[in-house]
UniProtKB/TrEMBL annotation:
Signal peptide: none annotated. GO terms for molecular function: ATP binding; ATP-dependent peptidase activity; serine-type endopeptidase activity. Its EC number is 3.4.21.53. GO terms for biological process: protein catabolic process; proteolysis. This is endopeptidase La. The lineage of its organism: Bacteria, Bacillati, Actinomycetota, Nitriliruptoria, Egicoccales.
Length: 368
């Protein structure tokens, strides 16, 4: 059985899982169509983070990114144990590994998502801190197998679309979204020290024939006033964006956001600070409250608002305060309030196992 550690983005639940059907492949010699998601490691981003080019400040607490470990190639016995465990979720394999993809392709794609997540979080954090950030174009970070052109490579920087200069990935995305499948786009591309023109004919997305598709993953080529390096190791995926941004603000800002507490969380993050829902929320809460490294469990868990109803049903073994957030500003405001011993009004105290108040707290949250 092979495991992949990923900061998982949102998943869509397939009909078979919703109906509780048995695995589609029952023989050990055949590939299983389900994977198991279990609690993964929780890592203190402040220990993974290095900043230079500006004054940095120490923290008295921890800011934990949370992950899900994905076990694939499940046999029938493993599938049954996973379904009965209460802490492991089984989902259709193609929700994590797209049909036709192999482990290396998925790992490469998740690594690209992680890199983009780190950059986006850096931009959002520097914006929050008042630094000036200058974009120099849209950086190609991955080219998928069914891309509409073979003239773009990883490392290319798109600096203009149809003669209009673009300074970031949003400029290219906006231009593509304004077109239709079959339309042509003229791109000016910088590769190393050379510039070249590339014409692409937009394809159609596999899930929406009306949505234009190129097949590249874009980040932003930037001239940053501060160098930020986050060593996430083998962890992939986009959902640690919120915790990356908070850690950068913690390191570069004079205020101690944690106030000595262990704060965990999850959520994708956009450049403008919007926090997005993710997959595997219960496994992430469990991984943060019962840490595999033996560290102190999370006192606070920042939850994307779209995941709160799932999070309140997590069978935690130690108390944790769930704080729903929809933006980076909301997360910062919540941590500021907690540092002043004020509990955010929409927070949910999730008691550990065998605490009768736990059921009442979860029922209250679910009724909202």
């Amino acid at each position: 059985m092979v495991s992949l550690v990923v900061a998982l983005a949102a998943l869509t639940t397939g009909g078979a899982l919703a109906r509780g059907l048995v695995p589609c492949e029952l023989l050990q010699s055949q590939p299983a169509c389900y994977v198991a998601m279990r609690p993964g490691p929780a890592e203190d981003v402040l220990r993974l983070l290095e900043v230079s080019g500006a004054r940095s400040y120490p923290s008295t607490g921890e800011l934990l990114l949370t992950t899900v470990a994905v076990d694939e190639d499940l046999g029938l016995a493993e599938w049954l144990r996973s379904r009965a465990s209460g802490v492991v979720e089984t989902v259709p394999r193609d929700q994590v590994f797209p049909p036709g993809s192999d482990r290396d392709e998925v790992a490469e794609y998740n690594a690209a998502l992680m890199a983009d997540s780190q950059l986006t979080a850096t931009l959002a954090a520097l914006d929050e801190l008042g630094f000036e950030v200058v974009g120099e174009g849209a950086l190609v970070t991955a080219v998928v197998e069914d891309a509409v052109t073979d003239e773009l490579e990883v490392g290319d920087v798109i600096v203009a679309v149809d003669g209009h200069a673009v300074t970031d990935n949003r400029g290219v995305v906006t231009a593509v979204q304004a077109r239709a499948p079959g339309d042509r786009l003229a791109l000016e591309v910088r590769r190393g020290d050379a510039s070249r023109d590339v014409e692409v004919v937009l394809g159609a997305a596999s899930d929406d024939a009306l949505r234009p598709y190129v097949g590249v993953l874009l980040s932003t080529e930037l001239d940053l006033p501060v160098e930020v390096v986050i060593d996430a190791g083998v962890i992939g995926g986009p959902s640690a964006g919120l915790m990356f941004a908070l850690s950068i603000v913690e390191a570069l800002g004079p205020e101690d956001l944690t106030d000595g507490t262990v704060v965990a969380g999850t959520g994708t993050l956009s450049r403008d600070g919007e926090v997005g829902a993710i997959g595997g929320i219960q496994q992430k809460v469990l991984g943060a409250t019962a840490r595999a490294d033996g560290g102190h469990g999370a006192d606070v868990f920042l939850v994307p608002r779209g995941n709160l109803d799932q999070a309140v049903d997590t069978p935690v073994t130690s108390d944790v305060l769930l704080v729903p957030v929809g933006t980076l500003d909301e997360a910062l405001a919540a941590l500021d309030a907690l540092a002043r011993d004020e509990v955010p009004a929409d927070a949910v105290a999730l008691p550990g196992a065998n605490d009768e108040a736990g059921a009442a707290s979860r029922d209250t949250a679910a009724a909202r």
